[in-house]
Give the backbone structure.
Amino acid sequence: SISLNCSGFHGPAEWRVIKKLGLNSTQWETSTRTLYIKPAFKSHSGEYWCEKEDGEKSSTVNITITSGDVILEIPAFPVMEGDNIALGCKKKTIPSSLAADFYKDGHYLETGYVGKITIPNISKSNEGLYKCIFTESQGKSPESWLTVGGE
Ligand SMILES: *[C@@H]1O[C@H](CO)[C@@H](O)[C@H](O)[C@H]1NC(C)=O
Ligand SMILES: *[C@@H]1O[C@H](CO)[C@@H](O)[C@H](O)[C@H]1NC(C)=O
Ligand SMILES: *[C@@H]1O[C@H](CO)[C@@H](O)[C@H](O)[C@H]1NC(C)=O
Ligand SMILES: *[C@@H]1O[C@H](CO)[C@@H](O)[C@H](O)[C@H]1NC(C)=O
């Protein structure tokens, strides 16, 4: 289960959670500031943000829901230039610290010998689609987008 909370906004105005459906189409998910998704299915994957009546918007988050066994742990929120970020490759069903290869935009990046890597000193060039593949057991994660900078 996941919850999306429009926090950090002040005043009595109504905030609602919006989901992007297509290029120009969005869907109003809830009229309150918290959206609960329980249980989560693949179809809940997508880009979400908070929006006020007057059109003011938060930055967006990308949520990827998979029915597979392998999960890439990656920040869902935009990260700032200069940050160090950790990526992890996990199996849903068993705790693991197996070696995993990490890829960015389809290109091999680095092997994490205990399923984790750190990307130091983030810059705009680190933005892109990441995935991980367990070296021994084949399982691979879906791709997730990393955003640098925010809006
Ligand atoms: C959402 O965030 C607000 C403000 O930070 C907090 O008061 C509230 O308890 C949160 N709600 C949930 C369901 O996490
Ligand atoms: C999306 O909106 C833009 C500008 O409003 C328009 O030019 C474009 O054709 C629209 N695209 C679709 C798929 O409706
Ligand atoms: C979400 O993913 C799309 C590509 O799938 C990307 O264009 C967009 O910038 C991403 N947004 C965030 C906040 O990561
Ligand atoms: C981080 O990267 C910036 C430019 O990309 C560079 O100027 C700076 O020295 C780097 N910092 C560290 C601690 O490596």
